[in-house]
Amino acid sequence: AVVSTQSTGKEFKLSDRKFWWLKARALAKARNWPELEKFAKGKKSPIGYKPFVDACIENCNKVEAVKYVERLPREQQVECYMDMDMPEKAAETARLARGSEELFERILSQVSAQNTGLRDKINAIRNNV
């Protein structure tokens, strides 16, 4: 199946970037997670790994999305974890990133003021407690 899709991409004169984007989305939509992972690991992605994250999120698989989030720059990881409603993981990642203060402010701005327990956890991570 992989050989035929690659030849189809060439047949329709798709750029590498467009082919990778379409194939990642199609595999995620088909929920073919093992094939998506194999595709991502095959060679360096010309589109990066954010489209893989987005495709997994769109198809309701946060566990699979995390595999690709870890391949992104830390600032993008923080954004992705927030998109997946994982603020504690976003805070842990922000602590390791440059410009982490700005990232923490963004994280806290998305956490309800009434959720004091979560805000306290995020601040503890921020202060390296």
Q: Which helices and strands appear, and what pairs or packs with what?
A:
Layout: H1 2-11, H2 16-29, H3 33-42, H4 50-58, H5 62-69, H6 74-83, H7 87-95, H8 100-109, H9 116-126
Helix pairs in contact: 2-3, 2-4, 4-5, 6-7, 7-8, 7-9, 8-9
Protein model, in words:
The protein is mainly α and 129 residues long. Helix content is 71%, strand content 0%. It contains 9 helices and no strands. It has helices at 2-11, 16-29, 33-42, 50-58, 62-69, 74-83, 87-95, 100-109, 116-126. Helix 6 packs antiparallel against helix 7. The longest helix is centred in the first third of the chain and has 14 residues, at 16-29. The chain is elongated, with a radius of gyration of 18 Å. The N and C termini lie far apart (50 Å). The model has no long low-confidence stretch (mean pLDDT 90).
Descriptive labels:
129 residues, mainly alpha, 9 helices, 71% helix, 0% strand
Could you give a short description of this structure?
This protein is mostly helical and 129 residues long.
| C-alpha-based Rg, rounded | 18 Å
Helical fraction equals over 70%
Poorly predicted ranges: none
Number of helices: 9
* Amino- and carboxy-terminal Cα gap: 50 Å
**Average pLDDT, all residues:** 90
The description of the largest β-sheet is: none
Number of strands: 0
Q: What is the structural class?
A: mainly alpha
| Percent range for β-strand residues | under 5%
Shape: elongated
Order of helices and strands: HHHHHHHHH
